[in-house]
Protein 1
Amino acid sequence: MEYNKQQLEQVLYDIEPYTHRTPVLKSRLINEISGSDIWFKCENFQRMGAFKMRGAANAILNLSKEQQDKGVVTHSSGNFAQALSLAAKSLGVPAYIVMPDSAPEVKKAAVRTYGGKITECPSTLKDREDAANQIQQQTGATFIHPSNDTNVILGQGTAAIELLQEQPDLDFIITPVGGGGLIAGTALAAKFFGRNCKCVGAEPLEADDAWRSMQSGNIESNSSANTIADGLKTQLGDLNFPIILEDVDDIIRVTEAEIKSAMKLIWERMKIVIEPSSAVALAAVLKESQLFKGKKLGIIISGGNVDLKKLQEMIS
Amino acid sequence: MEYNKQQLEQVLYDIEPYTHRTPVLKSRLINEISGSDIWFKCENFQRMGAFKMRGAANAILNLSKEQQDKGVVTHSSGNFAQALSLAAKSLGVPAYIVMPDSAPEVKKAAVRTYGGKITECPSTLKDREDAANQIQQQTGATFIHPSNDTNVILGQGTAAIELLQEQPDLDFIITPVGGGGLIAGTALAAKFFGRNCKCVGAEPLEADDAWRSMQSGNIESNSSANTIADGLKTQLGDLNFPIILEDVDDIIRVTEAEIKSAMKLIWERMKIVIEPSSAVALAAVLKESQLFKGKKLGIIISGGNVDLKKLQEMIS
């Protein structure tokens, strides 16, 4: 599939009424530690607390009026469930969310707050797909994948476009890699809106499917994923993987200790609440500091939805 | 003592090279909950993580060259120790900090990072004053009080000036009340820079010395102060109390549960790291929501220096 700059500009324009233009922060101390010059694009301040709002809004906006009337459906226990619910609510569209019955009550409550209609099912992928299929048949709702959907990918890319509008001469943009929507959209944004800007992914060693996929040229999966970066356990898809293969320069893998240390640094020094997945990008920059020395870097802080009760175990 | 608008404008101009102009944030959800329209002035993003940087910088700037060469001394185990150290470092001035030997190692480390020279002593007020006196005699350093100092008061007022420059038609500005420097400076800023802006203080019920002082007309102290808002345990002073009596409209007292609840709301919904003292102002707004209904409010988020390891007990 071919993408172009005008297409991304249109998406940025389209989603603007439904999303925040999030702030870009800097930290003198983290610049000193890293030896580079970092602009943090703070999607933790995005509506519902994560970049996923962008892709969800764009996906719904690209449905026909008839499709919108029938609603949207997804299966997710994470940020995309909240994002699709809130984007749908903002657009007056019904949202059906399939969640595993084991999902924490706090996540279900968040989806309900945003008006999503929850269907619970056992937590296997097959059960979740079956439940989503059944809802599609009963309601005519359109299935929206959290990361492997062209409009979702383009929507996620708008965070990097906004960042490059503020700071056009970035040498690198670094994002965490989960299902691949954010990094694919960011890679397109870097290609079309950067001057000579490379896109680099960051991934937990404990869930390094994207790194292995880049090596093998095929979509690999994780047999286990014992990481605190719980948003990054998913695998790439056939729509975002070709973009990643073509436009992502490298993927850097980091340990759990490196993720925790980067997360603590951001909480303590920047005074912002971020989720563990968001810390993975800074962890990668600190790990490969020679590569980034003296460079201008953009880091996408992907989100801030974290259970404060679990903070202690996350940083210790 | 008389104060005027030109004097405060000059302070804002003077400290500008040594401080950040901190961002102002809004939260749609907190506006819905409170029924008012709130602008949060985020001094947690200030250098060293708290508004105290402003007063410390202004106090040192108002010393003569001879005084600056001999250095400054204070006794504090909190944010002012860090603020005076960093302000002194920025201005090439020696800083001597008297800290109780019981102070947490993390706080001592922060002072050292900013170049402050620590003298440890037993934790009684008399021991601290004796140690500070001795340093003054030995070095000729000037003692700077954390809150009861005219230049400190004027410096702290600059946060509210910046807020009113962005949002000139605020009906109220609400700040926490500890030693009285922030609220006195804010009250002056509201009087000189607001259109018809009242200044209101917020205080823990467990350390309500300022509320009692307003009632009695004398500076009262706390016999105990069992509050998580550990920055607010100190009492008012003879320089800030007259300003407070004249220009502060009211002081609202809140329970520990109300402080924790407001703190959690800000962490979870605004995704910013604040210290418990900072949550007291929002707690007051939520408690007296009838008073503030439909009004435009400024809240000074005083700082973000919190021990993450203690977060669990703070919010539970």
Protein 2
Amino acid sequence: MRQQNLLYAHSGGVTAVINASAAAVVAAARASGRVGKVFAAWRGIVGVLEEALIDTAGLDEAALVRLARTPGGAFGSCRFDLPHDDGGAAMDRLFAVFDAHDIGWLLYNGGNGSMDAVARIQAEAARRGHALVCVGVPKTVDNDIVGTDCCPGFGSAARYLATSMLEAGLDTASMVGSKGSVFVMEVMGRNTGWLAAATALAAQGDPDRAPHIVLVPEARFDEAAFLARVREIVERLGYCAVTVAEGIRRPDGSLLMEKSRDARGYVQLGGAGLAVARRINERLGYKFHWAIPDYLQRSAGHWLSATDRAQAEAVGRVAVEYALAGQGGTMPAIRRLQDAPYRWDVVAVDTAAVANLERSLPDGFVRADGLHVTTAACDYMRPLIEGEIPPPVAGGLPDYGRWDWAPVARRLAAWQA
Amino acid sequence: MRQQNLLYAHSGGVTAVINASAAAVVAAARASGRVGKVFAAWRGIVGVLEEALIDTAGLDEAALVRLARTPGGAFGSCRFDLPHDDGGAAMDRLFAVFDAHDIGWLLYNGGNGSMDAVARIQAEAARRGHALVCVGVPKTVDNDIVGTDCCPGFGSAARYLATSMLEAGLDTASMVGSKGSVFVMEVMGRNTGWLAAATALAAQGDPDRAPHIVLVPEARFDEAAFLARVREIVERLGYCAVTVAEGIRRPDGSLLMEKSRDARGYVQLGGAGLAVARRINERLGYKFHWAIPDYLQRSAGHWLSATDRAQAEAVGRVAVEYALAGQGGTMPAIRRLQDAPYRWDVVAVDTAAVANLERSLPDGFVRADGLHVTTAACDYMRPLIEGEIPPPVAGGLPDYGRWDWAPVARRLAAWQA
């Protein structure tokens, strides 16, 4: 019996464990005995359109292990949504590529937008009477996919950020001077405050420990209340540590990150963290330091959450099971069975029901004054950052993989977007 | 025989291993059997002036182990230089505190400025015919103390930054798009480029790996040459990763960090990294991400260099030996005996000979075009980031210490600066 091929692709921002999902997909597909070749697209859905495929047969067992522990997206990524207004040209092209390479299964790793693509591609297959089975693999450091208790990628970023706030908080506390010191860390999160909230784990329940304030997009930024709280903390402790999600907004809904004005009225382009830090300095006179970990927070393979990596592997493995079982249009989701000790399993979710939705911090996770998160938020997040899985080290640095992919020969004319 | 007391203090910016030196001082002083009480000053030399002393007797063996692995300065720190123009008031006060608490030995942990204080305090003791012995303990992430092959604190910060560049480089490579992507990381280093240079270890000798460009204060920033190089790298690889030391300067000697102008001529206050990233965007049109690890780079106790920590402990332990041997005005320095395998020992250096000097990257460590560092620089730095020493973890976070210090009763009137 002819075996069809499986195609894996990932899109959107990468994570520290996205390759663990990829490696699990490859391993599960091989182990099934039912899959011919396991292809990966170079640069996500754009790579499918461009027929830029990689044959993962070149990865031996040792290379798969190495892939699973390497942060970043080994097969590249892209920021591209399948168009709705191209008369079906992109969709036609996808199916032409599937047919040209005998793709029976498409596994698509991504966030909310990618789950929309999964639902649309599966619906298109049904419309065409095409046998393609398309299954989603959830992933995002933002933790904002609906239908899953958490998202692979979040736990490791959360662990990195909580550790960073713990360490920088100790540093800031050391540097307490007579004038008051403030440390501000800006973290990712344009629309949701999950990563900002994660830094609250550093305080371990003690209101005197960093971070003393956590600003999330779910609460409007009330400058007067914020500054009053900073002053109160500095007057009590001598210093104050603040986490700022990049997407916090003023009461009128405008983003702090877009622009702010300095004392002379000049427009200052810069992040929300810098804007907040400058405002503290202007209004309260405190010295400030600020950090923006940016990509560091989503690529810290040296400090993974073992729980997160296990979940990234599980959704990859189970996605192959769903695909081979013909459960197109689904995505494996993490279900929480118990908080402590933490127990979880994987269940199937219909991507059409969750696509393009966005999961914000629930009301019970944001403190009423909008300046911190609650114990309930910490209880939810704590198990997600647990478990050690240090990387092998060579020469003082993590021993990550590097690949030179050989492209699969193209069978179609070049794609014109 | 009456045993005199020993006083330990640390000043200036803290490091991830400064407490390892402190713990080694306490342990060595206890083990000597020749020291009465081991005091620590709260907030460095300011704490001595303010007679804010802590009796470390409260730290049992387990607490000392915990102290040694906790980043930040457990006894606080300060940025304060002993004045030259106060008619000797501060010096008088220091000796009054020494006498009030029967201090026979002062161990002062810090950088160039602190070594100046060590030399001056020892000279003052000689002038007064006072028996005090003052010994320095070198420390700085900047690695700029003269007379020592490297500075405790640098190796761990270097390891953290090289790992961060390695990981963020993988992330940036994943996100390669059609428009070119640039990642800029701004690291500490107002006057010297040691920490920026350390990120070059991430490339492991491969010019195609991040960082592709390293800008250090020792080379003037030639914008045209820099932009040409960025363009060349992006055209070849699709992306480019750049390390920027905060203190880089234009050919006229002005700091980029102080101000730059946007396309409309507005003054933009911000760091050198942001200024460089914006310039790339304005002139070349590439998308950019930028990071500023700030305090994270000097407090990453979760990813220490074991070599660095061993050296931090050694200088603390040996400083006690020098003190007890009456070698006032010295500091223990690291001497490199061999590159590979790395071997080192500790030798005495006269603080008066090195005080207030600053060790820049030597010419042979900066590439002739000023856009990267050399193989010789990497060969020098590589052993300093080696060796694993992961912290114990509780709840997913490093299990660091916290202390509530009980102040020693004051015996003098309050200090009026």
